Amino acid sequence: MNIEFHNPLYHKTVLPREVAQNIITKPGGVYVDATFGGGGHTKEILKADPTARVIAVDWDKNALEKNKELLGADQERVTFLWINFIALEKTLREKKLGLVDGIIADFGTSQEQLMRGEGFSFSTDTPLDMRMSKEHQKITAAGIVNRASEKELEHIFFTYGEERHARIIAKTIVEQRAKKYIQTTGDLVSVITSVIWVKRGQIHPATRVFQALRIVVNHELEHIEQLLESAARIVKPGGRLLCISFHSLEDRIVKQFARSHKELWNMHRDLVVPTEEEVHQNASSRSARMRVLERKS
Known about the structure:
Layout: H1 3-6, H2 16-23, E1 30-33, H3 40-48, E2 53-58, H4 61-67, E3 78-82, H5 88-94, E4 100-106, H6 111-116, H7 141-147, H8 150-161, H9 166-177, H10 185-193, H11 207-217, H12 220-231, E5 235-245, H13 248-260, E6 265-267, H14 276-281, E7 289-295
Parallel strand pairs: 1-2, 1-4, 2-3, 4-5
Antiparallel strand pairs: 5-7, 6-7
Helix pairs in contact: 2-3, 8-9, 8-11, 12-13
């Protein structure tokens, strides 16, 4: 049994067949799964082409060690790299792995990390950490919440969370942290809900603030930009770069990059979205959007 598809703690891979269909351009290709996670995209590529090889990348060491076992005998066709994908170009060069025929990058957050990691979920009271990889990141969400200025907090919540109540939330955080250090997710949720009420049928008022902090702590948008910039030096002419986004901030970066690098990439006109069947089986796939960029010769 593939745990990834049956254990609710694991991120369910979105658009698995669509990824394999779009990334494979020839038999025996070498592809990078830049966000290995639960291993679903890697597994689908190896299944679709028995001669393909995959370079599986993740900065969550736990994900690599646990989920590579799900590939069974196909592990022999996979090279595992415990790095952030911003180090991909450098690592491929150092290990003499050469250019590749395609890259898949799924910018979604692993459900396993959200549930088990510290600070990601506002449903459980844990230390306000939010680092995807404690070995690679130093600044925590608590550090930002307790030290950033009111203006900086407002900017973070509005820019990265698209939170329309950013100003009052930032003001209240600064007032409350003067009385008590905001140490846990429960502390932060209490501050937010003291000024923005929880309403039935609407998203929790802490949702966008937590998203914004997670993005800033892990430099998510900057890392996407760095991956895109390096991709042309990694992917062979005719190869493809597949980017799966879950919110407008990520997708906007990919669109703007493709439009400003037309000399290097052709962006396929049509967005790839989940089928009704996939959305029915995996509700979290509903907001997934995949853009396909093809490297020009």
